[in-house]
Write a sequence for this structure.
């Protein structure tokens, strides 16, 4: 078990280094020059622009050879410094991301968890009731097949534009400052509900279908059949089937949670919700090396943590996996 | 004592009924081990499963089953529930993955018993004794199925299905997945269960007739959903009369030598489709003695006491 953990951790560390290196490299291979973008923003005399250009290039360390930039990057990274945003100059990248993170989490965590619970319940129910299944299954397939962008826009249009129940942009009204009051919380929730709902719905179908199929598969498996030959109550057979069917769903959940940090780019763009996904698109549009890098580092960390959790959870839940990793499983 | 009369079990498929067990009549007496042999696909498992767990796509089409003088309601899934495990049990053909992979075996048994309203403690001693009987250490109860070898899992299933001393045990192909050395041990264990009175009678299903020589009291040969011949083990081996049985036995390379697929190649031709079986004798296409009469259903011929065959060309020992 210990050996298993050690190898896993090593693999994850290597993966992290590799992924971050690529993440560092990619923006630098993109066409265009971010400093030019920045300079053009402060536009002015061509003369001062040139001075500014060379100053900023130096300040961001972009005049140095690549290997040195790479080296500096890791040193800074280990100090918790992800650089300065070019597009939101002079805000540090870490601060930008830190203030965006709660918005992403606030939408994604609840929507993933809620759709997971609801989807699994619906799926398990459908697996048991033939009649219900024939109604639910097509609905779930429809939901699952609906492109998210389309769904998001429909929701925004219908509830935001036609019914005018909910606002369709931002995390709270422009006039407000974040603070703790009923007014603000209410306003925040109003902005929150549509992006939440869109993500909830779009994920629901997948969970439900997955769970339904898994439960049916388990109910038809040999161990269920053997239980039947022993004349046990249906409740016991269902209990076993459910428990075994939920295992892959738990893996799926953990993997989904890994994307939490990444935010859901589409959601955040459709509803102009200021999470990491939104920041990422802005960063890309503005060729903000450091911000792009920072976003991806967050995403990488999120995905790796999620995968690691999956590994641990699975080992804890499934004796078969434990066994395949050698020895003691009791 | 099990009595089966005119039992018909068909599978409902999109293309029609598959007549896997078609008008089968036989009995298994108390203290008897009946060997059931025949080529793959002849309906052995269907017959065995049908007596315990009859559910779609398998359909009950007709017949009657009595166990210990009482009607066994095999066609009624719910009413049959009470009889399963307590009166009839099966070691299924899929015994290797019959256990729940995510439950420790002891806990699993406990939950099964609880579900049947039986207190675990009241059978704990029996359970431990039975484990000893099949050479399993007591600690398997604290293990997960994956920690057991295939043979161990099978013996575990054997212990579980016989835990409540059912009247009838059906053992479906318990030897086919094992290597030759363990085959014999398992066969003797099963027979031993009967000798010790744990179960009253056994139907031992196999497609390898040679396994039956040492353990069966009587042998029943099935062909394409029907019975071909039934008799005492000695009668079948020394004096097979149905052409199919004869060919089955002569196609054996040597007594005791394991064969599986070779048996099929030993008899030219293929068993008929059970979707639309031929009229009359189902063996006629492969039978050297085939005659015009064989287009009609072959009669039951009682050759001598306990020895019967379904064939036009078999004559009773007058
Ligand atoms: N679920 C099913 N649906 C339709 N036909 C089936 C089904 N199960 C079995 N059959 C058919 O019924 C016939 C008898 O099958 P069965 O499993 O009883 O044979 P068997 O004698 O046990 O063979 P084996 O030695 O391979 O186990 C076969 O022709 C098979 O194709
Ligand atoms: S009834 Fe006819 S075809 Fe069938 S086994 Fe006997 S002789 Fe052969
Ligand atoms: Mg079979």
């Amino acid at each position: 078990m210990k050996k298993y953990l050690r190898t896993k951790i090593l693999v994850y560390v290597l993966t992290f280094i590799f992924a971050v290196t690529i993440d560092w490299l990619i923006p630098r291979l993109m066409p265009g020059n971010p400093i030019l973008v920045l300079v053009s923003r402060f536009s002015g005399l061509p003369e001062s622009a040139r001075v500014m250009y060379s100053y900023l290039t130096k300040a961001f360390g972009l005049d140095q050879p690549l290997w040195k930039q790479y080296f500096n990057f890791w040193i800074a990274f280990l100090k918790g410094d992800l650089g300065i945003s070019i597009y939101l100059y002079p805000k540090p990248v870490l601060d930008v991301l830190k203030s965006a993170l709660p918005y992403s989490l606030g939408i994604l965590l609840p929507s993933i968890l809620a759709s997971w619970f609801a989807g699994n319940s619906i799926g398990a129910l459908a697996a048991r009731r033939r009649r219900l299944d024939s109604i639910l299954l097509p609905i779930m397939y429809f939901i699952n097949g609906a492109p998210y962008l389309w769904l998001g826009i429909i929701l925004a249009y219908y509830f935001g534009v036609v019914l005018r129940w909910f606002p369709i942009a931002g995390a709270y009204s422009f006039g407000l400052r974040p603070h703790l009051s009923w007014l603000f919380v209410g306003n925040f929730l109003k902005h929150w509900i549509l992006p939440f709902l869109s993500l909830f719905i779009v994920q629901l179908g997948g969970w439900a279908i997955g769970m339904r199929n898994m439960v049916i598969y388990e109910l038809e498996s040999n161990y269920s059949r053997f239980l039947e030959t022993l004349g046990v109550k249906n409740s016991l057979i269902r209990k076993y089937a459910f428990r075994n069917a939920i295992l892959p769903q738990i893996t799926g959940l953990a993997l989904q949670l890994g994307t939490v940090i990444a935010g859901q780019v589409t959601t955040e763009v459709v509803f102009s919700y200021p999470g990491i996904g939104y920041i990422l698109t802005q960063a890309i549009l503005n060729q903000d090396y450091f911000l792009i890098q920072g976003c991806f580092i967050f995403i990488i960390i999120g995905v790796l943590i999620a995968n690691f959790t999956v590994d641990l959870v699975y080992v804890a839940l499934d004796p078969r996996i434990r066994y395949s990793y050698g020895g003691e499983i009791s | 004592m099990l009595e089966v009369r005119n039992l018909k079990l068909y599978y409902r498929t999109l293309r029609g009924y598959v007549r896997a067990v078609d008008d089968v009549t036989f009995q298994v007496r108390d203290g008897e081990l009946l060997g059931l042999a025949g080529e793959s696909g002849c309906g052995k498992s269907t017959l065995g499963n049908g007596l315990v767990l009859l559910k779609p796509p398998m359909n009950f089409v007709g017949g009657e089953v009595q166990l210990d003088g009482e009607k066994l309601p095999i066609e009624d899934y719910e009413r049959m529930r009470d009889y399963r495990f307590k009166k009839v049990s099966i070691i299924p053909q899929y015994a290797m993955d019959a256990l729940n992979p995510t439950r420790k075996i002891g806990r699993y048994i406990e939950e099964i018993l609880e579900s049947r309203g039986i207190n675990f403690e009241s059978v704990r001693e029996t359970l431990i004794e039975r484990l000893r009987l099949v050479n399993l250490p007591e600690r398997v109860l604290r293990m997960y199925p994956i920690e057991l070898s295939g043979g161990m899992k099978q013996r575990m299933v054997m212990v579980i299905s016989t835990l409540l001393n059912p009247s009838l045990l059906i053992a479906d192909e318990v030897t086919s997945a094992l290597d030759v050395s363990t085959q014999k041990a398992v066969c003797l264990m099963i027979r031993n269960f009967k000798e010790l009175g744990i179960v009253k009678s056994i139907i031992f299903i196999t497609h390898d007739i040679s396994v039956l020589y040492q353990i069966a009291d009587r042998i029943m040969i099935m062909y394409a959903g029907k019975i071909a011949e039934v008799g005492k083990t000695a009668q079948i081996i020394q004096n097979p009369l149905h052409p199919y049985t004869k060919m089955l036995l002569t196609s054996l390379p040597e007594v005791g030598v394991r064969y599986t697929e070779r048996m099929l190649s030993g008899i030219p031709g293929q068993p008929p489709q059970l979707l639309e079986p031929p009229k009359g004798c189902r063996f006629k296409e492969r039978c050297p003695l085939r005659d015009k009469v064989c287009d009609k259903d072959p009669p039951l011929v009682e050759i001598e006491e306990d020895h019967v065959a379904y064939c036009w060309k078999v004559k009773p020992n007058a």
